[in-house]
Amino acid sequence: MLETPLQSILVTLAGPVFGSFAATLAHRIAAGGSPWSGRSRCAACGHVLGVRDLIPIASWLVLGGRCRYCRSAIGRFEPAVEALALAIAIMAVARFGGGQVWLAAGLGWALLALAAADARAMVLPDPITLPLALAGFAATAWLAPERLASHALAAGGAFALFLAIRLGYRRFRGREGLGLGDAKLMAAAGAWLGPEPLATVVLAAALAALAVTGLRQWREQRIDLAAPIPFGAYLAPAIWLVWIADPGGMF
């Protein structure tokens, strides 16, 4: 497919905007509110933020990471998520052309929103996870229709396996060890990737989670084997990186 410079520019500009949405969604879920309604406000003073306060990355830099109205620190979570969304857009443009660049970027942004929500609130919202699975089947039907049946089996099998692990852990340990959202996210992974790459996704996510958690606990000089881990925040980037690497030969 032919890629135009205008399309590359649009995808790149859209990246930080979607990143801003992902960060806002994560904050609202963590605060226990609705992620879909209401204007953005400063978490410290409650002042409604204007357009000039919400320009992705740029506003944070200009304001020095502080609220324009009360000068409270904003933190680095928002600009970090916006920068990651920009990186996803740039990688999608470099890897794909034509309509596939939007597909790749959209998948990356949706997974980024899930990762941000899980990192902030230990939640993988169904309004993102479930449509993502359906989008995976639609993408497969468009790009590799002959693989649709195997992707459907992969989605069902991945969900069943993670659900069994969740139920087994809860029965033998008496507490939750794996969220139902992780099972739904793995179903979405099966819809996008098919059966072959799923083991790679889980292994990469598990190793990353162990490394990050181990490093954090080492820096804090404490070992807590029961500490909760937002596994979806590691599954999400693994899914996207494996998909754009094309291990299943879809493209």
Report on this structure.
With 251 residues, this protein is an all-alpha fold. The protein folds into two domains: 1-98, no CATH class; 124-251, no CATH class. Helices cover 66% and strands 0% of the residues. It contains nine helices and no strands. It has helices at residues 5-30, 58-62, 77-95, 100-121, 126-143, 148-173, 180-193, 198-219, 232-245. α3 packs antiparallel against α4 (100-121) and α8 (198-219) packs across α9. The chain starts with a helix and ends in a 6-residue tail after the last helix. 35% of the residues are buried.
Short description:
By secondary structure, this protein is mainly α.
Q: Provide a count of the helices.
A: 9
Distance between the termini: 12 Å
Unreliable sequence segments: none
Shape: globular
Q: How many strands, what sense, and barrel or not for the largest sheet? A: none
Order of helices and strands: HHHHHHHHH
| Helical content class | 55-70%
Record keyword descriptors for this entry:
single chain, 251 residues, mainly alpha, 2 domains, 0% strand
